[in-house]
Structures are given as structure tokens and as C-alpha cells.
């Protein structure tokens, strides 16, 4: 191997290493922020109000569909192995209770917001992308509630979604504002 080839190879490996570690850093950062947002909780039954979904849709927006979904898959994995990362510092049991469907939909929510925002960016598109991502989480969670409590989907949707609609609109609007303000400087986080 010539000196030029050796230098090019080392520069490439150094760049690949920086890119890889930067991606891991941001994916794990959104995993951690989702955990922290889960602890900001208003205890309402059967599903508490938290800021988790705001971080889920921001993960997809900032990291893109794949890395956003990965951040949430890691979050679910940590909870599934018993680490107290879910709301109220709970773990595995949350996946089998009323919040399970919402939690399991987090990767989907991040994927949806990331997918839409990879193609277009305006404040309206941003808000709609985040609303659709939230809707995916809500519909999955309500379906799970319906199965868990042997109720109609309409009853489960009312109990697990309608009562949170004002809060969801506030979270979506806050997330869209945060994303739109930051994305003026960075189209994606510096991965």
C-alpha cells in the first residue's frame, strides 16, 4: 500500500468513525430525552399525560425516520429489560398495561414524522407531520386499550385519546415550533 493510499484509508476511517459515533450520540441522546420526558407526568387514568410523545415526534424530525425510530426502539428495549425508563420510573409492566400500545407505537411515530419531514419543510408541513405521527401513536394506543379492557374502539379512543386532545395539540405545536426554529440553522442535527 502506497503512502497516498494509506493516508486516504486512514482519513476515510476517521471520517466514518466520527459519523458513526455522532449518529450514536444523537440516537442515544433522544433515547435519554424520551426517558426524561416520561418523568414529566400528570397522573390521569388510565393513561398518564407525559411529554414523551413530544420527544418521539422530535426524534423523527431531527434524526430522520430510521434514526428517530432507532432511538425509540432502544428506549423500549431498555424498559423491556427492566430498566425504569417509562413514566413514573416504571419498566416492563408498562408494556402490558394501559400504556403499552402507546409505548409500542413510539418507533412508528418517530418514523412517520421523520419520513414526512425528509421530503418537505414548512411550518404547516412540520405541524401536519407531527400531528400524523401523534395520531399514529394515539390510534395504536387506543386499539391496544380496546383489546386490553375488552371495550369498543370508540370507548377506548375516548378514554385514551379524546381527553388528551388539547394537550396533544399543545405538544404538537410546541414540538413544531422547536423543530422549525432549530431547523432554520440545521436541516438535521449534525450527524
Offer a concise description of the structure.
The chain is mostly helical. It is 74% helix and 2% strand.
The proportion of residues in beta strands is under 5%
Shape: globular
Biggest sheet strand line-up:
1-2
User: Any idea what the radius of gyration is?
Assistant: 19 Å
Helical content band: over 70%
How many domains?
1
* CATH architecture tag: Orthogonal Bundle
Average pLDDT reading: 86
CATH topology: Arp2/3 complex 21 kDa subunit ARPC3
**What is the strand tally?**
2
Please give the CATH class: Mainly Alpha
Count the helices. How many?
8
What can be said about the biggest beta sheet? 2 strands, antiparallel
SS-based class: mainly alpha
Low-confidence stretches: none
Written as H for each helix and E for each strand, in order along the chain, the element string is HEEHHHHHHH
Instruction: Report the end-to-end length measured between terminal Cα atoms.
Output: 31 Å
Amino acid at each position: 500500500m502506497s503512502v497516498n493510499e494509506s493516508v486516504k484509508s486512514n482519513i476515510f476511517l476517521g471520517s466514518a468513525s466520527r459519523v458513526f459515533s455522532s449518529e450514536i450520540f444523537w440516537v442515544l441522546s433522544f433515547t435519554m430525552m424520551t426517558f426524561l420526558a416520561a418523568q414529566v407526568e400528570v397522573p390521569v387514568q388510565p393513561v398518564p399525560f407525559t411529554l414523551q410523545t413530544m420527544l418521539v415526534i422530535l426524534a423523527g424530525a431531527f434524526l430522520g425516520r430510521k434514526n428517530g425510530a432507532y432511538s425509540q426502539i432502544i428506549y423500549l428495549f431498555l424498559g423491556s429489560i427492566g430498566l425504569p425508563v417509562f413514566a413514573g420510573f416504571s419498566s416492563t409492566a408498562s408494556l402490558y398495561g394501559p400504556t403499552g400500545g402507546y409505548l409500542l407505537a413510539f418507533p412508528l411515530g418517530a418514523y412517520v414524522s421523520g419520513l414526512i419531514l425528509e421530503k418537505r419543510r414548512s411550518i404547516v408541513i412540520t405541524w401536519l407531520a407531527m400531528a400524523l405521527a401523534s395520531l399514529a401513536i394515539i390510534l395504536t394506543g387506543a386499539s391496544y386499550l380496546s383489546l386490553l379492557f375488552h371495550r369498543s374502539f370508540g370507548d377506548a379512543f375516548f378514554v385514551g385519546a379524546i381527553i388528551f386532545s388539547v394537550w396533544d395539540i399543545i405538544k404538537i405545536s410546541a414540538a413544531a415550533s422547536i423543530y422549525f426554529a432549530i431547523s432554520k440553522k440545521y436541516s438535521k442535527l449534525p450527524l
